Amino acid sequence: MTAEHPLPEPRRPRRRYDYAGSGPAIYAGSFAMIRREADLSRLPADAEKVAVRMIHGSGQVDLADDLLIHPGLVAAARGALRAGAPVLCDVTMVATGVTRSRLPRDNEVLCLLGDPRVPGIARAWGTTRTAAAVSLWEPRLAGAVAAVGNAPTALFHLLEMILDGAPRPAAIVGCPVGFIGAAESKRALAGLRAEHGIDIPYVTVRGRRGGSAMTSSALNALAREAE
Fold first, then answer.
1. For burial by CB atoms within 10 Å, which of 52, 115, 125, 196 has the most?
2. Overall pTM > 0.90
3. DSSP labels for 43-109?
């Protein structure tokens, strides 16, 4: 619309349902309900808010039973972000879900799926575009916060890069979702120290559950202590 033809003012519909309309009140009530209903006792104490936000992002209180959180995750991720480290995301949905105002140093939030090299790499390597895009993280990977919320192939590829000597991120949020490879890729992340002697702090969730909302929720909790 031009200045001569402005958009009409929206018309508020008649209130017909009884529901909470205040954003802050909804958040506060949701977090309080999660703490009442979820058993968070086995998780690292400083990771409680990470767990609460991930449960909030999934709507599933029993997610707490499947969360695996490295005891050094919060300190490592928050320290990296405060030092200005970038957040590397496998898909744009994860990147879009990061609340920029929570980032302590106006940190870069990057997804390289749109890089013009990605389709050719994926074809040549016989892999997914998300995995191909992860290969382009290497110059920025050292000390970064890496986040995989969609593609198991992306998490597998990241772990293979690290095992081949790529720079190590400060922390990994590894919560790909799906039926093929999701549970297996997360088991590989959780077993990185025991199986390969590489200790990188991480958060993941056992089984098929995961996804962009859950991953960005974890990133938002790691970015700032305040809820």
1. 52
2. yes
3. S-GGGHHHHHHHHHHHT-GGGGGGEEE-TTHHHHHHHHHHTT--EEESSHHHHHHS-GGG-TT---E
